[in-house]
Amino acid sequence: MTARGPIERLPTGISGFDDIAAGGLPLGRPTLVTGTTGSGKTCFAIEFLARGIVLFGQPGVFVTAEETADSVRSSAASLGFDIEQWEREGRWAFVDASPIEGEEEPIRTVGAYDFGALMARIDHAIRRSGARRVSFDSFSSIIGRFTDLGVMRRELVRIVAGMKSLGVTLILTSERTEEYDGISRYGVEEFVLDNVIVLRNVLRDGRRRRTVEIVKFRGLPHRTGEWLFTIDSREGFVVIPLGVAHPPAHASTVRVSTGNAGLDQMVGGGLFKDAIALLTGPAGVGKTLTGLSFACGAAGTDERCLYCTFDETHDQLVRDAASWGLHLGAMEAADRLLVKADYPESASPEDHFMHLRHAVADYAPSRIVIDTLSSLERVVSTQSLLDFVIALTTMVREKEITTLITAAYTGQAPQGGQPSSGGIDLARVTDVTIMLRYVERIGDIQRAIAVLQARGSDHDHAIRQVTVDDAGMHIGDPLPRVAHVLSGSAALTEQPPWPAGPDAAVREPDAGGGDQAGAS
């Protein structure tokens, strides 16, 4: 008996999917794609064929059992695929398997439906076009017309065997009624087919969340769990996070300025070019100012900065920057800055990510500012926010884009004081962690800054005084007797007689003591 060779894979070309599929679908085997209404089954089936034509030069056959060919052409056109052109070129063929008038009644005997004639038409279309891929949408509309489950399973085995003999890689779509109850509507399809993919379209907290899960690839490994995806008008079916990160071949040793000389010194001479920095702090403490300074650090260089704000409009951001002597209009005119202003409620988190991805592809920035990530918490779950962060960090690391992310402090200090947003420990996915905090004293509030981590670089361990005026942010001397900065309730352990000016140095208390500010 001859030993069988390893099972080959067929890359689908669907963005992000081949990463979680560990290379693609099992070559020459049928795959069941099942999901509820609106989960993206037809889109997956269309794109499987379209990417085969565009990326690999592999013709395809689309068997439609529910929608008309015109409807499929229209859906494909919305994703940028010109099926009519491919039909004229002989690279795409339709086979209409929809029931004709009078055939909608349930089938009680096998002979009532001629599968042999349908298989002959599919075989003819494959041979005529030289197809390597076939999508059958929706197979459940045909198999579901049998009333007996035993007959249904037997006929399904016969059809699948016939499709295997044609030497093509096949996608069969099927409907299901519940998101997390069973795999398929009839409970037989997943046992007959070698491979099963489940698409979900779950409503949580008033928002739809689409996910894809590979339930099984018989004889082949794959990545488990649910993966977020979206259907983008520009890129089609996109799995987010983008599968697995593909890190750069080397770690950059080039430093770039944060736009603030004092902060540059604190982080060891500036940020590494491939670094992702997290700046966290309460409202009004200076996060946006720091982000704007970082963006303006690209002025006078050959760098570009993409500034994404979820809190303000473009004009508000320009006005605020001008109050600190930062002129965004000049940078925009010099093509050194692109501002993307979107409120969180305007789109889903995955669509916000796709907007960022498109901007990165079109504008090719060297720097990115996300201000502020915490605004997305208003409209997303913790899991969706984590998906967004992982997708973002994956993208910028691959392209070596220096990135500054701002986040509001939640008032919690998990993991020994590490900053979090929406329950996510953000410091675990970033390289540099910076905290801006208020320090309370009797009758006054002062700002403080600390660098918690700077991977691959020595950094300042002091908690330093911060002042803000119309010239921007100034980082001063270390603050004495400061406690509980990491917990978000920073205060002086003693109250010195403070000088009158906000920029004056902190002095030791007089011999007579004075009022004290208790550590909270």
UniProtKB/TrEMBL annotation:
Residues 511-520 have a biased composition (Gly residues). This is non-specific serine/threonine protein kinase. Pfam families: ATPase (PF06745). GO terms for molecular function: ATP binding; hydrolase activity; protein serine/threonine kinase activity. Keywords: Hydrolase, Kinase, Phosphoprotein, Repeat, Transferase. Residues 8-253, 254-489 form the KaiC domain. PROSITE patterns: KAIC.
